[in-house]
Amino acid sequence: MLVVTIIGVLVTLATSMYDGYRNRVNIFRAVTDITAISASIAEFKLDYRHFPVDLAKIGKDTMLDPWGKPYNYVNHSDAKGVGSFRKDKNIVPINSDFDLWSNGKDGASVPPLTAKSSRDDIIRANDGGFVGLASDYDP
To answer: Domain with 71 in it: what CATH number?
Structure first.
């Protein structure tokens, strides 16, 4: 009976450690993807002198985040998207050019980073100066 209990405890510890590891790997992959997509967007801007209207223009519309969801993109030069700009705790847009993010593990998000559903998002902020977890972003 003691051996079974010890094995159960070890399996529980190993499972929780593995889940934490997988989460860190997924976050790292999303950060890497967002950085690469940002570079493609910057290259598009150099070639055409404006940002793409969507990720399809740079061939990244089918790219999925580590949780199987498409990446989100909002071009700030499109006046219709003002309400969907990502915002910090002071309700100030976190980028002046474009927003690019993954909805994270929970698959849900809203523009303010302080909202519970946005805390696990992987975001691009400060015009590319920060790429990481929304909960780690402090303007």
So the answer is: 3.30.700.10
Residue 8, classed as helix, strand or coil, is helix
A 10 A CB-CB count for 120 gives: 20
**DSSP structure string for 81-109:** GGGGS-B-TTS-BS-SSEEEEE-TTTT--
Give the H or E element holding residue 122: strand 122-125
Q: Is 5 helix (H, G, I), strand (E, B) or coil?
A: helix
Q: What is the number of structural domains in the chain?
A: 1
Nearest partner of 71 among 107, 50, 102, judged by Cα: 102
**What's the pLDDT tens digit per position in 35-59?**
999 999 999 999 999 999 999 999 9
DSSP assignments along 9-53, one per residue: HHHHHHHHHHHHHHHHHHHHHHHHHHHHHHHHHHHHHHHHSS--S
* Per-residue pLDDT tens over the stretch 74-97: 999 876 766 789 999 888 999 999
Domain region containing 22: 2-136
C-alpha 39/C-alpha 110 separation (Å) is: 25
